[in-house]
Amino acid sequence: MTKRVRTAVVGLGYFGSFHARHYALNSDADLVAVVDADGERARAAAAEHGGEALSDHRALFGRVDAVSIAAPTSLHFDIARDCIEVGLDVFIEKPIAETVEQADALIAAAKARGVVLQVGHIERFSAAYQALKGKTFEPRIVEARRLVPFRPRANDVSVVADLMIHDIDLVLDLVGSEPVSVEADGLTLVNRTADHVTARIGFANGAAAIVTAGRVGTSGERTVRVVEETRALLCDLQNSRLSVVRVNGLAEELGEGAVDSDESDVERQDNLAAEIRDFIGCCQTRRSPIVTGETGRDALAIVQKIEAVLEKSAPAAAKEYSRVAS
């Protein structure tokens, strides 16, 4: 019989509470504790999902097997390092850390201790994305767009680290080649960091990606478009749909019937539930997760390159607008 995994969640903000709920519902896990510096928040989560309310992640040591870290990004490295050093398997919400150097240190520590290190790039577990990945062979162009209405959370970081990182991870997964160039343009509108950014990534195999993320829109959009030699595929992550257009010949030779297309709905799944199941399965079997520490590090490396380009061009390319009191 497979041993149940004793789990805990550190950080009970917007996403951490969802982690606690899924551990509580997972038949292979026991939610032992929830941890947050805000004692009232920890007690509320414990009352709703079970487990003991704690204020310090170090109080978990010796009591759990695995932990989700959903605290602010600035705390990821210290909390994860402490947990890895005592042999806990670790799931870190994206981004893995603040810097690539910190990410490398966590990866090395996890390998030395033989623990699971998984990073929370949740779109990998989207049924629509999995359907796209199953049909994609040799992408030449990948275009990803992620636009959301303004919301007052996670705005202490740029839209690149907050939202675009999801699509950077998907682009790297789809293209499967070394990034060799990064360009970017951005605007800072209502926050202290960039709110709308378009980045262009070139790859060693000749493929290119155009990735746009914005958090001041009026409606939401989450799409990934892949262009191959004779096909174009559009994955609508928000509405769980996949469209495919095929071109059966050269443009000058096209006649009636030379282009065909199909569009289908993809049955949705709970992405976080699937992600938690993968983590628990890794803890039980010691296999490598779908989204490894190295995966999280590679996405973070592109994020930092984009942010460096934006910072360098900020005086000429962006303007910060003062908030006007109503």
Please provide a written account of the structure:
The protein has 326 residues and is of the alpha/beta class. The chain folds into two domains: 5-115, Rossmann fold (3-Layer(aba) Sandwich), CATH 3.40.50.720; 124-270 and 303-317, Dihydrodipicolinate Reductase, domain 2 (2-Layer Sandwich). It has helices spanning 16-25, 39-49, 73-85, 100-113, 127-135, 159-175, 271-285, 293-317; strands spanning 5-10, 29-35, 52-54, 66-69, 89-93, 117-120, 141-149, 179-187, 196-203, 208-217, 221-227, 231-236, 241-247, 259-265. The strands form two sheets. It has an eight-stranded mixed beta sheet. Helix 3 (73-85) packs parallel to helix 4 (100-113) and helix 6 packs across helix 8. Mean pLDDT is 91; it is low at 316-326.
